[in-house]
Amino acid sequence: MHPPSGCAFLPTPVAHFQSLDLLFSLPITIAATIIIIVVVVTQNNLVQVSNSFGRLTTLYSMEHLHGLLRIHVHRGVNLAKRDVLSSDPYVIVRMGKQKLKTRVVNKNVNPEWNEDLTLSVDDTNLPVKIFVYDRDTFSLDDKMGDAEFQIGPFVEALRMELNGLPSGTIITRVQPNRENCLAEESCIIWTEGKVVQNLVLRLRNVESGEVELQLQWIDIPGSRGL
Ligand SMILES: [Ca+2]
């Protein structure tokens, strides 16, 4: 025997309301909601509006974004041994609340990750922090040192008008000192129409190890830029 039409079991909309007062307040609630949406749209002067709060949130955060920082994690050199003969190293990159990681290279203290990790940058004053770990299967991963750097000099170079310079021109040289983690001079270079920075970081809190990186910048249309 077929059940009767499903609609027959659903209460009518009126049945949801305990009193007629609530029913009469419904049009007022709808009107108030529409007014809130219009006010938000007007204050932010946004063109692309789909009348949803989710869309508005996305546009709002784009206004705070400077762009993307692509970190090419090239390789590790003379990293510490955390297993009997070697280590299984990987790199974690942190900036603010963001956290990215490379793959694990097994049994190699001179690993070549050659991996691009991309951070969104909404504060150019935050340091980028690097952590190297040894992956272990039956215990917690072991620390293999850490380092950090500032992107200030790189951002300054990105703000310069460099079009027309020959490819390979060195724009800035950042020297290693007691305050930073540079193992050697770091060059910011104009190459093939873009700015890159090469970094060799000496790992801290470990007996040995360096990590080689290259920075690139990716502009995002609609973001605040640099
Ligand atoms: Ca291991």
List the helices and strands and how they pair.
Layout: H1 20-44, H2 53-64, E1 67-77, E2 89-95, E3 98-101, E4 112-121, E5 128-134, E6 142-149, H3 152-158, E7 169-174, E8 186-191, E9 194-202, E10 210-218
Antiparallel strand pairs: 1-4, 1-10, 2-3, 2-5, 5-6, 7-8, 8-9, 9-10
This protein binds calcium ion.
Q: Any overview of this molecule?
A:
- There is one protein chain.
- With 226 residues, the chain is of the alpha+beta class.
- It is globular.
- It has 2 domains: 58 residues, no CATH class; 153 residues, Immunoglobulin-like, CATH 2.60.40.150.
- The N terminus is likely disordered.
- A hairpin with a 7-residue loop joins strand 9 and strand 10.
- Helix content is 19%, strand content 34%.
- The termini are far apart.
- The strands form 2 sheets. It has a 6-stranded antiparallel β-sheet with strand order 4-1-10-9-8-7, covered by helices on one side.
- It has 3 helices and 10 strands; from the N terminus they run H-H-E-E-E-E-E-E-H-E-E-E-E.
- The chain binds calcium ion.
- The site of calcium ion (CA) has 7 residues, from loops.
- Calcium ion binds next to loops.
